[in-house]
Amino acid sequence: MRRGGNRKAYVGILSLAIGALAVDRMILGSGVSGPKSASASPQDLLASPEPSPAVTIRPVVRLAERLSSIEGSDAGEADAFAAPTWLADTKREATLVASTPAPEPFEQRHRLRGIARGADGTLTALIDDRTLRVGDVIDAHVLRSVDMASRAAVFEGPRGEVRLTIPLGDVGNKKRSN
């Protein structure tokens, strides 16, 4: 059965191609198309060429001169390439934002919430609801030391040493703000 379906498709495509060829030759192309014959005699080749019209030499005008000559002529028209006023304000704001230095990403993403001493005497740091010990890694930064007296945790990362401290307002603050 499958072979019969393929055969029908081939016959259909072939009949369509033959029909298109017949329409092209009989209806569209009423005349015989082919290469046109060309003739050239040796006398035509040896004959002198027709005289060319006189060549006029124009003075060289540089682009800067042409632009300066038309610069003042369109004074009443608005500049098509000028930025609209609303976009000019946005560009000024974008320049201000781009010129402001970006804060350190690690300090922005993570916060030291607390320091605890374990039963064995080791200090742990509570960073964003995660308990870390010295040597643990967070965002490619290794916790190197925890100091309870200065309320700080020191990390070593790709950009150097990063120090997280508990802000003074958070000491003894048990409420969690969202």
Word description of this protein:
The chain has helices at residues 2-28, 42-46, 63-71, 85-99, 105-109; strands spanning 112-117, 123-127, 130-133, 137-138, 141-147, 152-157, 160-165. 5% of the residues are buried. The strands form two sheets. Strands 4-5-6-7 form a four-stranded antiparallel beta sheet, with no helix packed on it. It has a three-stranded antiparallel beta sheet with strand order 1-2-3, with no helix packed on it. It is 34% helix and 20% strand. The chain has a domain at 105-166: SH3 type barrels (Roll). The longest helix is centred in the first third of the chain and has 27 residues, at 2-28. It contains five helices and seven strands, in the order H-H-H-H-H-E-E-E-E-E-E-E. The protein has 178 residues and is an alpha+beta fold. The radius of gyration is 42 Å and the shape is elongated.
Q: Helix/strand/pairing class, anyone? A: alpha+beta
Distance between the termini: 70 Å
* CATH second-level architecture of the domain at 105-166: Roll
As for the CATH topology of the domain at 105-166, it is: SH3 type barrels
Low-confidence stretches: none
Secondary structure tally: strands: 7
SSE map:
Elements: H1 2-28, H2 42-46, H3 63-71, H4 85-99, H5 105-109, E1 112-117, E2 123-127, E3 130-133, E4 137-138, E5 141-147, E6 152-157, E7 160-165
Antiparallel strand pairs: 1-2, 2-3, 4-5, 5-6, 6-7
